[in-house]
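Thread title: Can someone regenerate the structure for this chain?

I was given the following input by a collaborator and told the matching structure tokens would be attached. They weren't. Posting the sequence so someone can regenerate them.
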Amino acid sequence: MRGGEPLGRAGLALLLMAAGAGARPRPGASGGQPRSSVVLVACDSLDGRLTFFPGNQTVDLPSINFMKRYGAVFLNAYTNSPICCPSRAAMWSGLFTHLTESWNNFKGLDPDYITWMDLMEKHGYHTQKFGKLDYTSGHHSVSNRVEAWTRDVHFLLRQEGRPMVNLTGDRKRIRVMEADWRNTDKAVNWIKEEAVNLTQPFVLYLGLNLPHPYPSPYAGENFGSSTFLTSPYWLEKVKFEAIKIPKWSSLSEMHPVDYYSSYTKNCTGEFTEEEVRNIRAFYYAMCAETDAMLGEIISALGVTGLLRKTVIIFTADHGELAMEHRQFYKMSMYEGSSHVPLLVMGPGVKEQQEIPNVVSLVDIYPTMLDIARIPVPQNLSGYSLMPLLCQKTDSEVSPRRPRPAWVLSEFHGCNVNSSVYMLRTGKWKYIAYSDGFSVLPQLFDLTADPDELTNVAIKFPVIVHSLDKILRSIVNYPKVSSSVQEYNKRQFISWKQSLGQNYSSVIANLRWHQDWLKEQQKYEDAIDKWL
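Best answer:
Regenerated them for you:
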């Protein structure tokens, strides 16, 4: 609501009754049924486990609960790369990261890549997008890409500000993340003024920055984003007593890649229990503000009568560790970082479904085409979600490929000193690194160990062998890791040459400047040795 209280659960329910969302046609059914419109709301850094019980007992998310009541929630949805640009590149292309070569936050899709939205427009949909897109190459800070390129250099530098919290405003301060609210308002106005008058189906995309942490200017000019910021209005929606304080391994027991991540994220120092609880509480409050923006979109569709003709999809590019495994941010295959929300409601979607199948963001592309009744290209990495969502599947546009029982995620960017590959299937999560033997793999039994505290790779060598075989059948990961190493070196050399005489001062003043300036020559020598 403009400037006023966001719509709560009761308000949404009344809207839905008024919109008559109970009687909803099937989105893909032919035989004269008009094609459904689609709204995709994609936020940034929302831990998918917050969208179902028992994962979330800490914060009320009425819009997400509303989507669960009138639609479906996926219990095992994953990002294909736990960082902004590569993840979005996978979602907009329908292809795994190693196929688009979206290696870091700077390297995404080519600007002329044909996305699902381009195809929908070509096939008669009216298209509109607002907010954060971030799937093409060329964005993010210089620090971000230089840290990714130099991750094989033998040095260890803090690249982020220490995670912290900041309370702003008073109980009346609802619109904390103003840029996101402005984009939400634009989308709401577009629904009420444009979409309502269209004669053709539409697809609307809204990209939100929340609940991504905010920039931390205190950390210097090339600061990262390590501040969890909210107002008392949102913080009051968090049940502090329900917040779980994560268990941490001692620094000496950590997996070597986890130690590198924790150190570069400035998390290896001492943190009190109160600090950790506050970081998590403020993060959950930021999730509540995100949920309210989703509610504004749902209510705009409700008051215009478009709700019963529109498929709504809510997801995120990746999660947020919020101090689990002694880390914040993403860039990790642990659940907090890699598990994303995925909820769908609309025509033909069975209500109150909890879908256990493993799915991932590459599935968005074929799903969009399926809703629009456009033949799905066979070269995509993803599979349409519609067969899992719909009561029945008559009149197929494309013959179905059987959905595999695994999902793949991979990471090649900053804050992690190795390429990482995650295969999730059944109760297992298998994580392989680099060339497959220079860094030890990890294996977690998510049924017995949902917090991923015990690596059982040595205990179950047969399982490791069979999962590694599946992983290698999907991606030749030692070869991909080697390609990324070569790419990083090439990019760094050309960047260094472009700076000429300014190289030493520029590299010293990136996000790692506080550590770098203490022993400048030592770090420059380490880079020369690597080159």
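Residues 204 and 306 are 12 Å apart (CA to CA).
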